């Protein structure tokens, strides 16, 4: 990844950390889940309003590092309006991205701004920070009503 691209990615992550999108309790949620990363203290409550099989609305509350919060912010922006199956596909592709299963040469267009997390693979301890919101979403979509942990 070139330096220009790395700098752009850092700006997007910092922007979503400073001004997270969809950061509120969603009173009309039909599903919710809680996620924790005991290693670094990241903690998230995710609220999802499903309409049939579509994520009609989604929000989160919590605290954590810049990567964790910006990942939740970008995730909520991108999965809104997607079907449950589409959201799960994004989860899989995102997880492959941050764990290094997708090469740097692959087309990341379908991930949109989520591609900013490509650099996380270089810091294995940060993979859990970036993926916490996604694992929590996975649980909420299944309506498991359990605490998700990255341990």
Main beta sheet: strand number and arrangement?
A: 4 strands, mixed
Could you tell me the strand content as a percent range? 15-25%
Shape: globular
| H/E topology pattern | HEEEHHHE
How many structural domains in the coordinates?
A: 1
Count of strand segments = 4
What's the tally of helices? 4
Uncertain residue segments? none
Distance between the termini: 29 Å
Strand order of the largest sheet: 3-2-1-4
Helix content: 40-55%
Q: Give the CATH level 1 class.
A: Alpha Beta
Structural class: alpha+beta
Topology-level CATH name: Sufe protein. Chain: A
Q: Write the CATH architecture name.
A: Alpha-Beta Complex
Which radius of gyration do the C-alpha atoms yield? 14 Å
Please, what is the average pLDDT?
Answer: 92
Topology overview:
Elements: H1 3-18, E1 31-37, E2 42-51, E3 54-63, H2 66-79, H3 84-98, H4 124-141, E4 147-149
Parallel strand pairs: 1-4
Antiparallel strand pairs: 1-2, 2-3
Could you characterize what this model shows?
- Helix content is 42%, strand content 20%.
- The protein is built from four helices and four strands.
- The protein has one domain: Sufe protein. Chain: A (Alpha-Beta Complex), CATH 3.90.1010.10.
- The model has no long low-confidence stretch (mean pLDDT 92).
- It has a four-stranded mixed sheet with strand order 3-2-1-4, covered by helices on one side.
- It has 151 residues and is an alpha+beta fold.
- The N and C termini lie far apart (29 Å).
């Amino acid at each position: 990844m070139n330096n220009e691209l790395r700098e752009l990615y850092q700006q997007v992550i910092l922007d979503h950390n400073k001004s997270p999108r969809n950061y509120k309790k969603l009173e009309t949620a039909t599903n919710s889940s809680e996620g924790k990363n005991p290693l670094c203290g990241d903690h998230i409550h995710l609220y999802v309003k499903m309409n049939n099989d579509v994520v009609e609305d989604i929000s989160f509350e919590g605290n954590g590092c810049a990567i964790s919060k910006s990942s939740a912010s970008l995730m909520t922006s991108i999965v809104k309006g997607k079907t449950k199956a589409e959201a799960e596909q994004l989860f899989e592709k995102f997880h492959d991205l941050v764990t290094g299963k997708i090469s740097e040469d692959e087309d990341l267009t379908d991930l949109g701004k989520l591609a900013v997390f490509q650099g996380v693979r270089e810091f294995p301890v940060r993979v859990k920070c970036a993926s916490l919101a996604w694992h929590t979403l996975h649980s909420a979509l299944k309506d498991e009503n359990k605490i998700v942990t990255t341990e």
